[in-house]
Amino acid sequence: MWWFIYGLVLGAGLMRLIVWVQSESISVGWYVWLIAALALLLGTLTGQHFFASYKEMEPKAAWMGVLVMGVPAIILAGIASWLFLAA
User: Fold this and answer.
1) Cα gap 61→55, rounded to integer Å
2) Taking CA 16 as the corner, what is the angle to CA 20 and CA 9, rounded to the nearest 5 degrees?
3) What is the pTM of this model?
4) What is the pLDDT of residues 46-68, one digit of tens each?
């Protein structure tokens, strides 16, 4: 149920972002969208892995997943944000 709500919020937010970019006539390269999508994918995967591992009583695996997948997601999100603001 929570993942359904997450998907709805994510879809609404993405749609709002695209409408805003088009209304302000901001030119964003395709590679910025790709980097942002990878960051979002890794962030979602990190959250799912963390909560599933904790529910299975594997806290070490949960935190290792945050380290292995979450840190690159944050780095990619920072790069995408920097490129988006530079456009």
Assistant:
1) 11
2) 160
3) 0.85
4) 999 999 999 999 999 999 999 99
